[in-house]
Fold this sequence. Notes:
Layout: E1 2-7, H1 14-27, E2 31-35, H2 36-44, E3 58-61, H3 64-70, E4 73-78, H4 80-92, E5 96-101, H5 119-123, E6 128-140, E7 145-150, E8 153-157, E9 165-171, E10 175-181, E11 183-187, H6 195-198, E12 210-216, E13 226-229, E14 234-239, E15 244-248, E16 251-256, E17 261-275, H7 281-289
Parallel strand pairs: 1-2, 1-4, 2-3, 4-5, 5-17
Antiparallel strand pairs: 6-7, 6-17, 8-11, 8-15, 9-10, 9-14, 11-12, 12-13, 14-17, 15-16
Amino acid sequence: MNVAVLPNLNRNKSLSCLLEVLERLNKLDVSVLLMNEIYNFLVENKYMKKFNNNGKFIEHYQDIDDLFKACDIALTIGGDGTIINYAKHAAENDKLILGINVGRLGFVAGLEPNELDKLEELVNGKYTIDKRMMLEIIIEDKLTTKRFYALNDMVISRGYSTKMIDVDVKFDEDNNIHYRADGVIFSTPTGSSAYSLSAGGPIVEPNVECVILTPICSHSLVSRPIIFNSKTNILITAFSEENAILSIDGIGVMDITGGHQIKVTSANRYVKLIKVKKDGFYNILSSKLKPN
C-alpha cells in the first residue's frame, strides 16, 4: 500500500504526530509518499535516524499531482483547512483521504492524535467511505472563464469595504432573489457547520446533497437561508461601490465586479473521506461545538 502523508508543520503538535504516523506506517510495512520539502526537512533535522531502516520506506515527490497519482490513500495532518485543501486533489484523482486533526475543531477529520493505533485498521482495509459532494463554481466575464471547486463553501463578501453589497441570485431561469447584505454564502452540507452556521444557516447532514444559501447580515426583516436541490443551476451577479471579494473554502480568490457572472452547481466529483471510527455525525457535531 502507498500512503501519501501530508502534514501542515505550521500547526502545533503536527511534527510529533507526523513522526509517530511514519513510525507506525513503517512497522505496518507501508510505503510512504512525501512532498520534497517535508522529506528534506526530516533529513536535514536528522529525524530519519529515528527509523530502523533510515527512512528507506519513504519516497518523495516534487509535484503534488504526481504524488496523488502514485498513492492509494492520502493522510493529512493538520486542521480542517489542511484536510480541505488536499481533499480537492484527492477528489480530482479519485483517491481516498483521511485527516488527522491537530487543529481546533476538525469536523472533517477522521482521527485525533491519540487514536493513531487505528492506522492498523486503515492498512487492513477496515474502514468505510463517507462520500461528500462539492460545489463547482464557474466565473465568467467578457474575456475569461475560471473554474473552481469547493468542499465547504463559496463566499461573496464586501471585503474591506464598510458598505454593503447587492447580490442578485437567479435560479432555474425564472426565479430571482435580491440581497443587500455584507455578503452571501453558498455551502455544501459539509460546509453547513462552518461559516454558514456562524451566519445563521441550518446544519445539514453530510449525506444530503443540496446547496445552502445563507445571507450575511442581510438588510431585510424577511431574509432567510434557502436550501436548493443540488442539481439547481444558480447564477449570481454582485454589485458594489467597491469590488466585492470571492473566496472559496476560506481562501480569497479574486475581486468581483458587476461584470462577473458566477455559476454555482454541484460538481461531478466527490471527496471520499475515510472513516475508521463509528461515531455518527450528530455525536461529532455535539462534541465539537459543545460549550467549553
